[in-house]
Amino acid sequence: MNEEKTPAQAPKKKSKVGCCIGLSVFGLLLLGVVFYYVIGPFGLGLDLFGNQAKMDKVVDEALQRGAERQYTYAQPSTQAKTRTVDCSKLFKFSKLPRNNPLCVNLYNATAQDLQTKIDSGKYDRIVVYGDNIIMDAPSALASYTDMGTRIYNVAKFSDLVTLPKLMGLFGISNLKDMSFGIAPYKAIFYRVSTLGEGASVCGIWPDGEKISSCAIGDGMTIISDRIIAPEDNASVRFNAASAPTNMYYFIKFPTNCYTDDIFIHETTHNLISYSGQVPKWFNEQTAGFVGRVGPEEVCGANTLEKFRTKVDGKEVKNYTPVKFLGIFPAAETSHDYPESTCNQGVLTQWYRYLNEGGNWPSQFKTFFTDMRNSNPAVDSDAGIKQFLLSEDKDSQAATFVNSKCQ
Ligand SMILES: [Zn+2]
Predict the structure, then answer these.
(1) Would you call 324 helix, strand, or coil by DSSP?
(2) Ligand 1 centroid vs 335 CA: distance in angstroms?
(3) How far does residue 239's CA lie from ligand 1's centre (Å)?
(4) Residues in CB range of 85: below 8 A, 6 or more apart
């Protein structure tokens, strides 16, 4: 049961301004986005000085979510529609209260049902359960008066869009085979938590900043309450800390895409652990990668907008994130970036592997499906290296990786 922490924004180690996860006040996030775009300590925003119109446009766009899209929701299973869970017996984090929850099958309720019951003021938590998720959310958050609608939308979207998409990336069609033991049925448990609550379980960064979200094994997950305030997560910048001025993407979530980069990151940790126990650095960089490119898979094409990719100081076109990350050394997408040259080489080759054939989701799915099916020992640096090389059809892969591992 390893503790996995959400990366804040990638440039976390260099600037807290670009980091949203540690901020306790949602408004500060928006200010952070503005600040970043205008003042951008890594020069990203500096291009915009002297071009007020362009700067205004970027800032305006940063504060808005993208246009609505059409989403296809999966059909909930018969079991999901008919099951009843006794929330008094449901797992809860020992440090976090849940005294009198409203406990509801997501498919036997409407947003209005939830709202009416929340308005009664009797419940401290709202627990909704579906096919793939159990979501334990606060009944009140800041000044929001529409918690019923918020929780309903996020839970339903998570259960029938986000989870199926992310499970598809891993080649998982059903969570029932998961070894998770805490829920009354196989599901990922999300405890929607304030920053202070999250930190009480997830801990504190070395720099003293609180950690909002973490996946702690067995499907138990703390998720920042930012997930139910998506308008405050209007945009997320994505650049790699080890290449801050070179790689720059911007995630713009469509208005009705009820997910965020943190949710995708932590869910990825859960799905990785279903496939194998990999070294922490590989686990973290992979979750960091999916947290950043996953919104494109979940929310649709052009959710991830490229602003700039530079290689050797030159602007380059047609570099996708996965292709950029396959430049040695791979840029870091999360904390726990490997220090050793050998592991950096493995990480670089991992992204090259994903890029082979130009369809990273397909490669990703093959990799983790094979890992589950063949059950290789991948819990060490040598193990993950060996498994990658056994999967990789690039004839130069072994030569490259071994040259970094001498
Ligand atoms: Zn993580």
Answers:
(1) helix
(2) 7
(3) 16
(4) 103, 105, 127, 129, 134, 184, 185
Sheet (strand 214-215) strand order? 4-5, 214-215, 220-224, 188-193, 133-138, 125-129, 101-105
- Cis previous bond, 295, omega within 30: no
In this structure, is the dihedral angle defined by the CA atoms of residues 291, 156, 364 and 176, taken in order, positive or negative?
A: positive
C-alpha 395 – ligand 1 centre gap (Å): 31
Could you report the per-residue pLDDT of 223-247, keeping only the tens digit for each? 999 999 877 666 677 777 777 778 8
Asked whether 221 and 193 are in contact (CB, 8 A), the reply is: no
Q: In this structure, which amino acid lies at residue 157?
A: F
Q: Pick the residue with more confidence: 35 or 16?
A: 35
pLDDT at 248: 82
Cα 306 to ligand 1 centroid, rounded to whole Å? 23
Half-sphere CA count of 279, side-chain side, radius 13 A: 21
On whether the CB atoms of residues 134 and 189 are closer than 8 A, the answer is yes
Q: How far is the CA of 189 from the centre of ligand 1 (A)?
A: 16
Residue 63: predicted pLDDT:
66
**Contact assessment for residue 324 and residue 318, using Cβ atoms and an 8 Å cutoff:** no
- Amino acid letter for position 267: T
**Token pair in block for residue 343:** 């592991």
pLDDT tens-digit readout, 99-135: 999 999 999 999 999 999 999 999 999 999 999 999 9
pLDDT at 308: 81
Query: For residue 7, is pLDDT > 60?
Result: no
Distance CA 245, CA 87 (A): 48
Ligand 1 centroid vs 269 CA: distance in angstroms?
7
Give the phi and the psi of residue 113 in degrees, each rounded to 5. -55, -50
**Which of residues 268 and 48 earns the better pLDDT score?**
268
pLDDT of residue 18: 21
What the block records as the tokens of 11 is 């440039």
Q: Where are the alpha helices (DSSP H) in 83-127?
A: 111-119
Distance in Å, CA 288 to ligand 1 centroid? 7
